Amino acid sequence: MSDHNDPNDKSTGHEWDGIRELTNPPPKWWAWGFYLGLSFVTAYYILYPSTPLNNGFQKVINGITGAEVLVDGHTKGILHLVNSNPYYQGETWTQGEIDAFKAKGHAELTIKAGDLKYQDGWTAINEMRDDVADIEAVRAGYMEKLSNMSVDQIIADDEMRLFALGRARVLFGDNCAACHASGGQGNMNASHPENSFPNLTDDDWLFGGWASKLVETITDGREAEMPAKGGNDELTGADVDSLAKFVVALGDGSAALNDDGELTKGSGGFDSANVLFQDSCASCHGGSAKGSLIANADSDSGAANLTDGIYRFGGSLATVTETIANGRKGVMPEFGTRLDETSIKILAVRVHQFGGGMAKDPTE
User: 260, exposed or middle or buried, with CB in 10 Å at 0-12, 13-18, 19+?
Assistant: First the structure.
């Protein structure tokens, strides 16, 4: 560093390695930005809860003024003078809630049972609660209207259908997506077929996809079981292999049956397999192998259609063989004890509108 003695070169007299420190003012745009930023911060500190202070100082100030000038270790801001929130005299902390927080490691909490949960004036949480209350006020009218409509009526009304689909996003995500995926596409687990779940976006239904049936399914749940070897313990390993090849052929179209259980395609190669099928499988899947919903429309067993090539547990020869040999069991829990009637209607609309919903009961 060296001294610089020329008084007219706007230098401070400091120089480092040939670089002089001058007294030139900063650019005007930079100066204006600085002053505007400083003004904004000052106004923010005055208007909103902001300046952190220790709780001891807070108690002293509040004691002197006789008012909550400081809250939770920070200044309260002056917006509370013009914006008193409706939650301030509402909810209070319970001892159970406080104990739960402390159990999670928040031992420093100074709140007591009976203390108000929300401070007066503007806070981000209070503003959020106001916004939610405004939204719920709008939704309330729609929800009341939904409660008095059937699922078919909701689907037929464009405005109510769109509202129901919007509400269904959270409902479906919270209650259904874990198994059926967020888009209803289901989950095919090839390595563990027993952990596979149905696709709700196609038009393949075990129990039915019309509105009232969907409500019934969601409300009461479903439980279906295919017994090992179709319940026929006399089937040999060779019989199981023969049936598996026949079922795969029915799925890919290289074999076909009429409503009477007679081969219309694949005769000669699957005659003996069809005899086994009619003896051991047709009572549930129907003589045509189209499942209980189509072949035996009065049945509520949930037996799958074996002719459409759609599989819950997988359609490879190895998987089909395992299914026939060991059986399968599927359970969907009931939601009638968890959700109210309107929420179940909303979910039924969502499932129906995934794309595969049926217009009506096929038996009607």
Answer: exposed
Helix ranges (DSSP H) in 210-270 = 211-220, 237-252
pLDDT above 90: residue 121:
no
DSSP state of 83: -
Q: Cα(72)–Cα(62) distance, rounded to whole angstroms?
A: 11
Tokens in use for 162? Answer: 């769109």
The tally of CA atoms less than 13 A away on the side-chain side of residue 46 is 6
- Looking at residue 206, its amino acid is L
Beta-bridge partners for 11: 22
Judge whether 178 and 335 are in contact, CB under 8 Å: no
Q: What is the mean pLDDT of the chain?
A: 85
Q: Is the dihedral of CA 122, 123, 124, 126 positive or negative?
A: negative
pLDDT in tens, 74-85: 677 777 676 666
Task: Please state, as a whole number, how many other Cβ atoms lie within 10 Å of the Cβ of residue 349.
Answer: 26
Strands (E), 308-364: 328-332
CB 285 within 8 A of CB 295: yes
pLDDT tens profile 189-234: 878 887 889 999 988 898 989 999 999 999 999 988 899 998 999 9
Alpha-carbon distances of 138 from 133, 157, 171, 314, rounded to whole Å: 9, 18, 18, 46
CB 82 within 8 A of CB 47: no
Task: Judge whether 265 and 252 are in contact, CB under 8 Å.
Answer: no
Instruction: For residue 214, give the nearest of 202, 225, 222, 223 by alpha carbon.
Output: 222
Residue 135 phi/psi, 5° resolution?
-65, -45
Contact (Cβ atoms closer than 8 angstroms) between residue 240 and residue 324: yes
What DSSP designation does 52 have? B
331 phi, psi to nearest 5 deg: -135, 130
pLDDT (tens digit, 9 = 90+) per residue, 122-173?
Answer: 677 777 878 888 888 889 999 999 999 999 999 999 999 999 999 999 999 9
